[in-house]
Amino acid sequence: MDAFESIVSQILWRDGYWVQPSFKVALTREEKTKIGRPTTPRWEIDIVGYCAKRNELLMVECKSFLDSIGVEYSAFNGGNEKRASRFKLFNDAELRDVVKYRLTQQLLEAGLIQENPSIKLALVCGKIVRDRDRELLRDHFARNEWLFWDEAWLKEKLRAMSISGYENSVAAVVAKLLLRG
Question: Which of 52, 23, 27 is nearest to 115 (CA)?
């Protein structure tokens, strides 16, 4: 788990989710063949979160891209195949359906979630290329009923963390150092 995923995990924990970073989904041989990846290892999701109160299961992909140009809309609309390859769950409906199904079954069998959870796919971005990309991404994610969390979301969550009581977590300490006052 990288530092960005650690911060996002802490934010989700504060929002009432139990979280598991770097979650490995154990696809069956048949499922791997169905998605055209028969030799793929277990599928990894950056963060899996579950809120029992709402019976909501999150599949969260984290892309900080802090030292790059950032996330572009072309990675989601078919305009840039290379960039799209970084967002496989968002761009491959069959893969997404298979991973969602297997993830749900795996968690149910382990007794970690309730039956029939609401499953949401989310993307957390530390940097977006342009404001126009941000607008297009928000619209695209809303149309697909996915969650899109950008720098504004991160700043809001970290600001709330910075004014809360003491927490012994890296994310809370960094938020307090950077945003207090």
Answer: 52
- Structural element, H or E, at residue 125: strand 118-125
Domains parsed from the chain with CATH numbers? 3-176 (3.40.1350.10)
Q: Give the integer Cα–Cα distance in Å for 147 and 110.
A: 26
Residue 27 and residue 86: Cα distance in Å, rounded?
A: 20
Q: Which residues contact 49 (CB under 8 A, 6 or more apart)?
A: 12, 17, 18, 19, 20, 57, 58, 60
Rounded Cα distance between 105 and 156, Å, is 34
Q: How many whole angstroms from its chain centre is CA 51?
A: 15
Helix, strand, coil tally for the chain in percent (to 5):
45, 20, 35
Q: Which residue do the tokens 């968690």 mark?
A: 107
161 touches 173 (CB < 8 A): no
Taking the complete model, does pTM exceed 0.90, yes or no? no
pLDDT digits (tens, 9 = 90+) for 76-131: 998 888 888 899 999 999 999 999 999 999 999 999 999 999 999 999 999 999 99
The 3-state DSSP class for residue 148 equals: strand
**Per-residue pLDDT, 78:** 86
